[in-house]
Design brief:
alpha+beta, 2 helices, 28% strand
Length: 87
């Protein structure tokens, strides 16, 4: 499923950023969901929970910004806006 791969890739990028910063854990992340991304916050959270198991992002609290602007240049995208790290 496309969503699974997308979220798995995001978890890998989040973990890579955490490791680069010398973090011990990712405590949270803010994610922007485009209006045409085909992902709800609940659906993203479900995939994230599964993909993050065993990583520095396991247990991270997710906050979402959900766009309803179908004309936004990133309307099909999912963007990591920020990551909260414990160092």
């Amino acid at each position: 499923m496309h969503e699974t791969g997308l979220v798995r890739d995001m978890v890998h990028r989040i973990e890579a950023a955490a490791r680069s910063a010398g973090a011990e854990r990712v405590s949270g992340a803010r994610v922007w969901l485009g209006a045409l991304s085909h992902l709800s916050a609940a659906h993203f959270r479900e995939h994230f929970t599964a993909a993050a198991q065993g990583t520095l992002a396991e247990g991270a609290i997710l906050a979402f910004e959900v766009s309803d602007d179908a004309n936004h240049p990133e309307a099909q995208g999912v963007i990591i806006k920020s990551i909260d790290l414990e160092v």
